[in-house]
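Name: Polysaccharide pyruvyl transferase family protein
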Amino acid sequence: MRPRILVTGIPGHYTRLANGAHGLSVSYSERQKQPETKEEFLQELRNISNTGNYLIGEGALRAIAPHAKQVPFWHLYNCSKNGVGLEEFNANFDICVFTCANLLRKGLSADAEAEVLSKLKMPIVMLGIGLQNRRDLENSLPEGTKRLLNVLKEREHYFLTRGFETAGFLKDQGFTYVQPTGCPSVYFMPHNMRASLKKLPHVKIGKARTIFSGYLGANHDTIVDAHALAPEDSRPQYVIQDEFLHFDMNVEENGDGRVYDSASGSMLGELSYPGTDRLKTSFDIRTFFDTNQWRAWASSMDFNFGRRFHGSIIAMQAGVPSLMVAVDDRMREMLGYTGLPAVDAIDVDNAEDRAEFVADHLAGLNASELIDRYSDRERTFRTALREIGIGQ
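Structure predicted for Polysaccharide pyruvyl transferase family protein:
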């Protein structure tokens, strides 16, 4: 008999419409949100913290058997804390898939995760777990995260990690079922992913309409990227993920009291962030709370040059050739495992001619090898899910 699968953790964009939950039932609004005032827009960002996270929940749910039931984590947490308890979930599910990201990091104590998973009396699959910074693992993790790992040691568990470094750390902690598989977002829309890899060596730097992603408000790296790679006399395109929450980027409402256009994803009003004085042409900045809208817009572009992992993955899901810039240990782990095309930030930033460096790198890529590597990683991912009993 097939296992009854509970899915929770990082959600897909569809959970934006959840307006209530009782027991095993979750209700969803039929009214699409239009967060166009500054307050509404920022609250929508806070609800997910980083719009790139939507790809994780979406990719996971698509890869898991279709009879799986997704329940928002906030509902499980509320049940656990308000005295209702999780007995109904324990009685109706056989296994829990917890979708996660860089959960092992210094700045996050996984108290809520430990609270909920300690009361779910079933095997737990930690899907997509990864590190933020290797030094976080070398030093002591937050107490809540330690408690979470102890909870998982007490029962049957499965760790499907973002890469080899996280897998090694968890094995050193005494966990047995640990397998690197990459982030589940990488295996969503695999045909388009392969199409993007096939196109990559043929991108014409300086002529291709390019999507940029990075850390506007924190540094000027993406501004330098746009100066070097965007077509002359074009307006460079930039997609927001969390800059208004975590970096020095601000927006003020326009004359209509709006900062955001829901139809196009375009930011309105006055935008400010450090480095604007260095721009030859201001960025056309967009934000997407719906991954389908994000992919549809991205599909009209020719190339993606990204310092954000999921901002680049969604372009690849739309069939757009993408080259990532590995900026930290988190990205290096995911890219090192998947073999997706990337250059290191140090090499890009030190290049005497950035456009020439990128063009030469693209021309030297072997698309067939990239596709074969990707297909091998996809098979590993889907095989692991089937072996656990949760795959399609």
